[in-house]
Design brief:
alpha+beta, eight-stranded mixed beta sheet, 5 helices, 30% strand, globular, disordered N terminus
Length: 179
């Protein structure tokens, strides 16, 4: 009988365990559309990340990541915002965040609006005002701040994988920021 040493982070899965879970269960994610607001609460800019996508191509995307076992949604959002935007981004999370949208990613193309080759995933999508300086970390290559019209343009949304361009458009429509 082998003795198993405790994981440093028991809320996280090993690569093998994650692959097995993805084969059998929907995974829970949080996603965030970072925005900058003017003094009257209107969206002036939308932050889009540039990173290497699941297909290996460079693509635009939004802040996204899994929720760990035992982690609150607020903590997961905070962790992924810091990971992707840096510690000085100063996201303005409310005490009790509420998603503006729920996206269901399916592994089979054409089986829904959102697609992820790796898994069936359910994502709670939030709009998060950011007031600080953003310096992407880890796998994010850069963060570009675009006007709402630029972010919702066909050119930009076509650079986004898995239907995330539709999420950005939905977020901007939700905020009344599209013309």
């Amino acid at each position: 009988m082998s003795v198993r040493t405790p994981d440093r982070n028991p809320g996280w899965l090993s690569d093998d365990d994650l692959a097995e879970a993805r084969r059998r269960l929907p995974m829970l994610y949080v996603e965030a559309v970072p925005v900058r607001l003017d003094g009257q609460g209107r969206v002036t800019d939308v932050g889009l990340l540039l990173r290497v996508g699941a297909s290996g191509a460079i693509a635009r995307t939004i802040v996204s990541g899994r929720v760990m076992h035992g982690e609150t949604l607020r903590d997961a959002l905070d962790r992924h915002l810091e990971k992707d935007l840096g510690p000085m981004a100063f996201p303005q999370l409310p005490p009790c965040p509420t998603p503006f949208h729920v996206a269901e990613y399916m592994p089979i193309p054409g089986d829904g609006m959102y697609h992820d080759d790796r898994q069936h995933a359910v994502s709670l999508v939030f709009i998060v005002p950011v007031t600080g300086t953003c310096e992407p970390r880890q796998d994010a290559l850069e963060l570009t701040w675009l006007t709402p019209d630029q972010a919702a343009s066909e050119l930009v949304t076509s650079e986004m994988e898995g239907g995330r361009g539709a999420l950005v458009r939905s977020a901007l429509a939700h905020l009344g920021a599209l013309r």
